[in-house]
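This section describes the prediction task in plain terms. A model, or a person checking by hand, is given the sequence of a single protein chain and must write out its three-dimensional structure as a string of tokens. No templates, partner chains or ligands are provided. The sample shown here is typical of the held-out split.
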Amino acid sequence: MEGSRGCGPIYSRRSIRKFEKADIAKEDIIEIIRAGSAAPSAKNRQPWKCIVLGNESKEAFLGFMEKGIEREENISAMLPKSGSGLPDAKNTLRIMREAPVLVAVVNTNGGSPFSALDADERFMEICDSLSIGAFVENMLLQAEKMGIGTLWIANTCFAYQELVSYLHVQGQLIGAVALGYAAEHPDKRPRKAPEEIVEFRL
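The expected answer:
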């Protein structure tokens, strides 16, 4: 319907970088993750695992992330071409400390991004990454429906080895989602118009 265009959580969702101190109920976190697991999945592999972090476990996680960022800056950069992203990673770390809950998202079929893959393994990784992207987006939209703010975080890459070691998890750490009640209401960010991104060959 014409009047419904641009409505709903797809369009109202924003990346939140300021959070209230209020806790989130465990049942609400489960509901958000349940919505994630309804996402489409390549070959129905469902390659996702969530590790929910709060309080001391969140602070420990972020301590290891800080160590990884410091290593990238001063000791041995594993992502030497991405150093320009370190200031943003530090700011993300500050935001993550403010959020009451972090959800680390793992590809259970994946391996270290620093390991070589053959063509078959690469395509499997691509398909599983697409599935996990849908999983995370479902989480973000469900949280938006529930009045809970989110930030989808990829800056964990700068501390990949430190964080995987801390989590003691098998698989590939994809990133994290910060959850909390929003203490800001950001304006809509610009988006490309359909005519800029679509090529019709009908």
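For orientation: The helical segments are 9-12, 26-36, 55-74, 86-98, 119-145, 160-167, 194-197.
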